[in-house]
Design brief:
The protein has 217 residues and is of the alpha+beta class. The protein has a domain of 120 residues. The strands form 3 sheets. A 4-stranded antiparallel beta sheet has the order 1-2-3-9, with no helix packed on it. Strands 5-6-7 form a 3-stranded antiparallel beta sheet. A two-stranded antiparallel ribbon has the order 4-8. α2 crosses α3.
């Protein structure tokens, strides 16, 4: 009887322990949240606009471009079938004195020195490096070109006779040439197309620089 009682107690205890173990809650770990990164906007590709002043003044067929065409550092001016020049854009124009007119020369080619501007500018700088107008053009580097010069008497006359400056936005006022005028002073002319006169060397007048185009002959 005593053994039966002990056995009964053991069974009861085992049952209670089993029940107690089953009642314990099962803890499930929380899942790690997945973080989705914010989409990154792509950096826009900016294509620079081509510089029209770097184009050639010659067409693909070998003929010159039209009058006023942007090319080779400025505006293309086909004065004649041979004298085709480029004038620097308006932002390059400066007001400068002349100085040293005594070393200037008068044109000698029979057409107001149309072909002598480059040579006259060079001589002015060599004989008088304190000539601001000539020195500025002789040493100008613009759009990759460094062969600029102060226009001749004839070139300046042509530009102003054709009223080229105003439509293209150039400054008003007098412009220097590289030649000597009729009275021994540097020749200048007003942008209005008239009022050509010799100027005092200390006067501050507009300086426009020109160069031979690739179709210059």
């Amino acid at each position: 009887m005593r053994n039966i009682l002990l056995l009964f107690i053991v069974v009861i205890m085992t049952t209670l322990i089993s029940c107690s173990s089953d009642d314990e809650p099962v803890v499930t770990p929380e899942p790690t949240p997945i973080v989705t990164p914010e989409p990154v906007e792509p950096t826009p590709v900016v294509t620079p606009k081509p510089d029209l002043f770097l184009r050639s003044c010659m067409k693909s067929n070998g003929k010159p471009q039209s009058f006023g065409y942007k090319c080779e550092g400025g505006y293309f001016i086909n004065w004649t079938t041979t004298n085709r020049i480029v004038i620097a854009e308006p932002s390059i124009v400066k007001q400068l004195a002349f100085n040293c007119a005594e070393v200037q020369e008068k044109w000698s080619d029979g057409n107001k020195g149309k072909s002598e501007g480059k040579e006259f500018t060079k001589r002015l700088v060599e004989k008088c490096n304190s000539n601001p107008a000539a020195f500025y053009c002789e040493n100008l580097v613009h759009k990759g070109y460094s062969d600029w010069y102060l226009p001749s008497f004839g070139e300046l006359d042509f530009l102003l006779d054709k009223n080229i400056f105003r439509p293209l936005g150039y400054a008003t006022g007098y412009y220097w040439s590289s030649a000597k005028g009729c009275y021994g002073k540097p020749y200048r002319r007003h942008s209005s197309g008239g009022l050509n006169t010799d100027g005092n060397v200390s006067d501050l007048n507009n300086v426009i620089c020109v160069r031979h185009s690739s179709v210059y002959k």
